Amino acid sequence: MHPSITAAYLARYRSLASAAEAAPAVLLPLTGAQRRFLITRHRDPRGRTDVVPLFFAFPRGTVDLPRLRRAAVRLAERHPALCGEFTVLRGTPVLRLGEPSVEVARVPVEPAAAHPEGPAHPETPEAPAHLDGPVRAALRRALLDWPADGPVLRLLLAAGPDDEEELLAVALDHAACDEQSLGLVTDGLGAAYAAAGDGAGDGADGGAPAAVRAEAVAAYRAAVEGQLAAEAAAAGPAAQAHWAARLGALAEPAHGARPAGAARSTGMAAERLPAVTGAARGGVFPALLDAVATAARHLDGEGGGERVLALGYPWGGRPADAAPVLGCFLNTLVHPAPPGPPRDLDALGAAWWDDLDHADTPYDEVVRAARAAGASWSGTLDGLLTFEDLHRRPPLLIGGAAGREVHLAGRPLAAPIAVSASHGEDLLVRFAWDRERYPGDAAETAFAALLATLRRHLGTPA
């Protein structure tokens, strides 16, 4: 049996950390997900960072930028993932600790006359018209132009000259962020803003004590090492056999793998469904999996494809007893979607639960197992599904006001289609697609099929 990818990484990291030119306290190891983000970035011709953004609308004048900057530094000092840089040293991905890696800035907005063709993307149900157009385009451009060497956290504020609201982007390098991290950031940033006071300049209230920073580093190291131990344990023969049986029929699409960094032109559609309550909540994610599979099948060979599709979804959390640290502790799991009509939800749910029993198996190990079983599959995904329970994320409070979350279309995609579902007071489903691959009418038909499948599984009327 091949040595595990995690074990090989740990050997290289320990050798690097113990070398004379690098003190062990300066370098920290990375989880499997963090390493994939760095490797993908280095392979991307544009060197683009995978970014997780949130967007909040506030009444104009609510956000004081110098105070927000002090709050961002205060937050970063307590989280090693926001200090220093994620980098590759001698071929080994690591977090090199340093000073807080944050940017807080106001983004200039071109007047509407500079965009006579109108908004670049259609308005979504949760996006008020006055925040569409120039403001949203300015933030999109700023996030697409994320510097290759950081920072890890960017807080960007934009508003048009006559807008009553301004839009704040809270964006993180994905290597420092997963779903649990989003809640830590919104909660921590609001608390830091309240504590930052109305000082005249940055650093008015001093930095975090050395003991606090050392404790944070120790907690982060323990959480990452616990995650790596779980990943190494999940790379054994039983996990290999499970994923070989599940994914051995996967094959590359006829049009080939998507080139890195290609999907810069994307479309988005959205729909709000009633929230799912009670015991039925446990069936939401399997229902979403089947609905996304239905949409992907419509787009693969115009609905008549006979290929088993590979759908990816992030899953995971901190190891047991780990501190609530910022970072990315997710793994990307792969769901095989065979041809044919929508699946029976009970059978699909049972298979999904079996997959979750092997959720710690690193993605590269999963690809290796599938190929060993005969799959002609490189690891390319036909679609992505992300799901967030909004009840787990505290609101972002700035100056006593709670930011109202809005969503921007036009983000680069890591797969031909991507579905994001947010479950709070309702179930918001957003469907994004690569415009260079699929025309708008085909995407809209696929989204309609997705919604029909989802409504049928959840018993929601059209």
Write a brief structural summary:
The protein is an alpha+beta fold. 34% of the residues lie in helices and 22% in strands. A six-stranded mixed beta sheet has the order 8-16-15-11-9-10. Strands 5-6-7-2-14 form a five-stranded mixed beta sheet, sandwiched between helices. Strands 1-4-3 form a three-stranded antiparallel beta sheet.
Can you describe this structure?
The protein is of the alpha+beta class and 462 residues long. Helix content is 34%, strand content 22%. The protein contains 11 helices and 16 strands. The chain has a 6-stranded mixed beta sheet with strand order 8-16-15-11-9-10. The protein has a 5-stranded mixed beta sheet with strand order 5-6-7-2-14, sandwiched between helices. Strands 1-4-3 form a 3-stranded antiparallel beta sheet. Helix 3 crosses helix 5. The longest helix has 24 residues.
